[in-house]
Amino acid sequence: MKHLLSVTDLDAATATALLDTSDRLRQALLGREVRKLPTLRGRTVITMFYEDSTRTRVSFEIAGKWMSADTVNVSAKGSSVSKGESLRDTSLTLSAMGADCVIVRHPASGAAHRLASWSDKDHTATGTHTSIVNAGDGTHEHPTQALLDAATLRDRLGSVAGRRIGIVGDVLHSRVARSNVFLLATLGAEVVLIAPPTLLPVGVAEWPCRVSHEIDAELPGLDAVMMLRVQAERMTGGFFPSSREYAIAYGLNDTRAAMLPEHGVVLHPGPMVRGMEIAPSVADSARAAILAQVRNGVHVRMAVLYHLLAGAPE
Amino acid sequence: MTDLFIRNARPYGGDAVDLVVRDGVITEIGAGLEAPEGVETLDAEGRVLLPGLVDLHVHLREPGGEESETIETGSRAAALGGFTAVFAMPNTNPVADTDVVTAHVRRRGAEVGLVDVHPVGAVTVGLEGERLAELGTMASAAGVQMFSDDGHCVNDPLVMRRALEYASALDVVIAQHAEDHRLTQGAQANEGVVASRLGLAGWPATAEETIVARDCALAREAGARLHVCHVSSARTVDVLRSAKAAGVSVSAEVTPHHLLLTDAALTSYDPVNKVNPPLRTAADTQAMRAALAEGVIDVVATDHAPHASQYKDTEWQVAKPGMLGLQTALSVVVHTMVEPGLLDWHGVARVMSERPAEIAGLPDQGRPIAVGEPANLAVVDADEPWTVRGAALASRASNTPYEGMRLPAVVVATVLRGRLTARDGRVVEQVAS
């Protein structure tokens, strides 16, 4: 594995190996006074974020540091155009400086694919064949989010295969939803997308999932429900009439949470809009695995860096 | 020199003949003719002879976009592609919305002399879709016969209605880039399975169909001539078919890339495949081929759209839409239409030369290969395949979506009013006359 651009780069065996590595790394760190493994000593890992992000950037940075990599954060806010330098030139520059891995978050779908193709094409010129990790590209994918969600579901439910997972909300604009649908399907889960038609992409019928517009009908049958963030700009975009109506129709309140089976898990990729897609009491309840997701995020990202930079362990 | 002797050519793929050209006009056609004394001979070696190709839709980028193409480099590409006339779209900088800019384009084309460059005038000032440009002055002072805001749709129905009404008195054609911009806000790719998976905002085919339906109704009421640029959706064909049956004066074009390529190519996110309207589905390409064979779509036009690498070697979202077309058009038409038996060589002549000339009102192009007709011709080796290399194309930019693809049919020679403009893959440099 040279790059991690999309969950479709991962077959079930590779994804499971990543999750297993994540578990082992967590065990290895457990109870250590100094939370540091020497695995990636001397490796340079750069996070390059063209969008605001706290949790993902910090999570990758901690993952790199706990593996003893040299981590550098580039805040590249604004588009490549307004910045004046093209994405390609920025990537060539970082490769020429010896970046072993560039972790990129970018508002354009496919930006990580472009970086990877330039890295593959230009590595003799730059001197470093940089690995690219997609930390969220436009409305396309966020593969490490899906991996940490799978890790969390494995922890809570014992397995992903055979479980029924609901994903609720703005699937149309969600890279988290895309990565989760395809990774969870690869791992053998049954995925149900729950959203109004305006927030579902055209062609969703071809995806390996089922679609529903009725959250109440689905909740009793779900092993886990993942609430997607409703972005403020969508509320004025005519995708649904009002935030009030959205909260009434799709918000996960106490009544709805009680419709889940006893073991039912609540996930949220964050950042949450409390009171909108999820009630504060539900977000803070025992069902919610939201902080476990964040903790797993570090371990999963350590596993990804490990597989990319040190090779998959035997 | 406008005298030429063409030996052993097969007009429309028929029987081999020789042709004598005098002063740019075909004066003799027959088997076993004597080469006239002192006249240059072009031995066609039994290859197919077509009327010179006419392209209703190119972007030559001059003035303002010379890093991507100039009238000279675009003319070279046209000559090498078998074209003897091209229509240069007005989305230049400054926009070709006055007789000054349109006359400049025509003059530059004539100076280069490799292909007749006809300026297309803007419908509205600055392509902004609000106020009509000086259509009458462009028509009278610069000979403009076709107007388009291409790249933008004349989205406002009232502005489009007035444009069609005004144009009807001038006997010029309005060529519409059919895209309801309200339905394509932020659009990056054909709305459908591929774009949804890739997270690219969708360009729904309905944005094309609804504008075409609206414009056909407006053209009917105005008694005007409407031309629909780059049809891309199967359902638009249905709209066109019923409008034509109802007697609306509407014509339509399809690009070579919409005959061949589909949105399946997008998975690499390489913006060389980004174009507007977007590459659509395999069902759409099949519908385009059938409609072209049937005549519902009248012509092939390239939408040749050069972009320098800095506009393409980027993330998909910021890349400019468009792809090169002039030097690959005939090959793609042979591959998609002739090889499957949808068109014969007469059909190719019809969709790439005769009908385009007729739509644009060119009296001296798209004419039959016959005595007394102007010698605008293309010699085509139908059997020879070639491999497309963007860097080897004559355009200043190299954004071809066919890179590395093997395509049939090589243009061996192009003749403009009796003068060779291209021969054996090389431009024949023109001496100022």
Give a summary of the structure in a few sentences.
With 314 residues, chain A is α/β, with parallel strands linked by helices. Helices cover 42% and strands 14% of the residues of chain A. Chain A is built from 13 helices and 9 strands.
Description:
The complex is a heterodimer of chains A (314) and B (433). By secondary structure, chain A is of the alpha/beta class. Chain A is built from 13 helices and nine strands. Chain A folds into two domains: 7-141 and 296-309, Aspartate/ornithine carbamoyltransferase (Rossmann fold), CATH 3.40.50.1370; 143-293, Aspartate/ornithine carbamoyltransferase (Rossmann fold). In chain A, the strands form two sheets. Chain A has a five-stranded parallel sheet with strand order 7-6-5-8-9, covered by helices on one side. In chain A, strands 2-1-3-4 form a four-stranded parallel sheet, sandwiched between helices. Chain B has 433 residues and is α/β, with parallel strands linked by helices. Chain B has a single domain, classed as Metal-dependent hydrolases (TIM Barrel), CATH 3.20.20.140. Chain B contains eleven helices and 20 strands. Chain B has helices at residues 71-80, 99-112, 135-142, 157-170, 193-198, 206-222, 234-245, 256-260, 282-294, 329-338, 345-360, and strands spanning 4-11, 17-22, 25-30, 41-51, 53-58, 83-88, 116-119, 146-148, 173-176, 189-190, 202-203, 225-228, 250-254, 299-300, 377-381, 386-387, 406-407, 410-416, 419-423, 426-427. In chain B, strand 6, helix 2 (99-112) and strand 7 (116-119) form a beta-alpha-beta unit. The longest helix of chain B has 17 residues, at 206-222. Chain B starts with a strand and ends in a 6-residue tail after the last strand. The mean pLDDT of chain B is 97. The A-B interface holds A 79-81, 86-88, 106-111, 113-114, 117, 137-141, 175, 178, 201-204, 206-207 and B 188, 191-202, 204, 268-270, 310, 313-318. Chain A: It catalyses: carbamoyl phosphate + L-aspartate = N-carbamoyl-L-aspartate + phosphate + H(+). Chain A: It is an enzyme of class 2 (transferase). Chain A: Belongs to the aspartate/ornithine carbamoyltransferase superfamily. ATCase family. Chain A: It comes from Pseudonocardia sulfidoxydans NBRC 16205.
